[in-house]
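Example protein
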Amino acid sequence: MASIHVGCQTYRWEMHGADWTGTPDDILRAVADAGYQGVEFAASMIGDYYDRPAPFAEALQRAGLELAAFAYASPHGFTDPAHLDDELAGAMQALHFVAHFPLPRLALGGAASPSRDDYDAKLDHACCFYNEVALEGADVGVDVLVHPHSHHGSLLESAEEYGRLLEATADSRLGYNPDTGHIVRGGQGLMTCIRTHAARIRHVHVKDVNAQGGWEPMGAGVCDFPALFAFLREIDYDGWVVAEEESALAWQDPANAIRVNRAYLRSVGL
């Protein structure tokens, strides 16, 4: 049977913005203490390790963790040609950082814009960006993925929009990084989406949401995680399942929030 690896994402610290005054090493300690096997760092949270991948690899080893993936997003959502050069430069920096680690994966944020005016042109531009980064990733041995979200400004929420994105990026072999909470908040059926795009799934984010679209600790919302994990085993998925957290608990105490999520994942067999 395929082995699913369980990791933790750094967004529960990132969402605190300037109020978070800790270090990447503080995050590594919290993730290790909570019992995860790996961590997915966002570029915005890596600090001065960004120019020092070897010391970061040593810090991971000391914590007993693996780098599950590295995440790069842009405040401009990859949809505005005026920011293309800067976004490509940022993606290349992220690619070359994560290439230093075993089985490297780069997760790119979802296409977003302040408005849906000129939707087709914006999404087409984002798809061209994703394709270019995915092809560059293949050249340097990095698996590149897209992580659609449902935050304000997302251009990727409906089943039709997901389908359009993945069809337009099929030739570059861009992978799909589903996020359970964002799928449901965007109005899709979780397992319908997962089954539809199973062939492109190479990394999975899990977080929970209630029927009104509010974030919840894992197991307290409507996401059917047992069905998801049963399906991943059915298809012999052997990648990472990475827990995220955006609920009130994460605002109150990020370290406790990730312990709560890890306990839930153990309760359902991960």
DSSP finds eleven helices and ten strands in the chain. Residues 119-140 form the longest helix (22 residues). The chain has a mean pLDDT of 96. The domain at 5-267 is CATH 3.20.20.150 (TIM Barrel).
